[in-house]
Specification:
By secondary structure, the protein is α+β, with helices and mostly antiparallel strands. The protein has three domains: 1-77, no CATH class; 85-214, no CATH class; 219-258, no CATH class. Helices cover 38% and strands 23% of the residues. The protein has nine helices and eight strands. It has helices at 8-22, 29-40, 83-92, 155-171, 195-214, 224-227, 233-236, 238-242, 247-257, and strands at 48-52, 61-65, 99-103, 106-116, 121-132, 138-146, 177-182, 187-192. A six-stranded mixed sheet has the order 3-4-5-6-7-8, with helices on both faces. The protein is globular, with a radius of gyration of 23 Å.
């Protein structure tokens, strides 16, 4: 695929500094991070790898720079739908838009923006139930929606805990529980926000921040059971990256196609 004559990254690199200076104080930190990622995407700033033909008579060499993997980057945005992602999308339709309504004396807020300065994360909660306490203060109760069923690992619980910790900061309260709603079982699972889960959540958030600061995305790991149901497996190609094809084989195939 040929490179377009003008990319968003070209505009950002040429005019981004002046635009940011002119709009200082009116651009959020998240927006600045996205602009920086797009400007650095597939440049020497993020590093890369060298591919060289193993044939000494050829010696063809090319440099492939790493991508930023930011979901807002036009060059990195990738999505492929399958049955599982479609089911998840339909499940989340009820909580996809910001809204608020009262149900049986409980204020229900959907798509609530959250931020935790302690964890250094931000995001959007699927659903937060607001319960009025005896002291008159609102006490939030996060409910995270998931397409499947409860899992052996704790990834879902960590996501819920991060939301709860953000809500604690935002409302100056202490929360003991949250809930995960699974579409496959149509049941809520109450999750205790104990010290062990909170520490695991803090560790995961810190590791994610380190990865972003280092600008190095971990290589994909192929796991047959998990990758078989992933809609992005053809785009990710974990097997090929784990066992890369020799340049000589690639070159031979390209020549044969000419």
């Amino acid at each position: 695929m040929s490179r377009p004559l003008l990319e968003v990254a070209d505009i950002f690199r040429a005019h981004g500094p002046a635009w940011r200076d002119a709009n200082r104080g009116h651009v959020s930190l998240d927006q600045l991070k996205v602009m920086s990622a797009i400007e650095r995407c597939r440049t020497a700033a993020l590093g890369g790898h060298v591919a060289r033909c193993e044939n000494a008579a050829c010696g063809y060499t090319t440099i492939a720079y790493n991508s930023c993997r930011d979901r807002h980057c036009p060059k990195c945005q990738t999505w492929s739908e399958n049955r599982f992602t479609a089911e998840g999308r339909v499940l989340h339709e009820a909580t996809a838009e910001i809204g608020s309504e009262k149900r049986r004396g409980v204020r229900v807020v959907t798509a609530m923006p959250l931020t935790s300065l302690r964890l250094g994360v931000s995001g959007i909660a699927d659903l937060v139930e607001m319960h009025r306490g005896e002291d008159g203060r609102w006490r939030p109760f996060p409910v995270e929606y998931k397409r499947g069923k409860p899992k052996a690992h704790r990834a879902d619980e960590v996501q819920l805990c991060a939301q709860a910790m953000a809500l604690e900061e935002m409302f100056s309260v202490s929360l003991a529980e949250g809930a995960l709603f699974y579409g496959e079982t149509r049941r809520r699972v109450t999750v205790a926000l104990d010290a062990a889960l909170r520490q695991l959540t803090a560790d995961v958030a810190a590791a994610a921040r380190r990865m972003i600061a280092e600008g190095a995305t971990p290589a994909p790991v192929f796991e047959k059971r998990k990758c078989a149901n992933c809609s992005l497996v053809e785009l990710c190609q974990p097997k090929r990256i784990q066992r890369p094809e020799p340049v000589s084989a690639w070159l031979a195939r390209e020549i044969a196609m000419k």
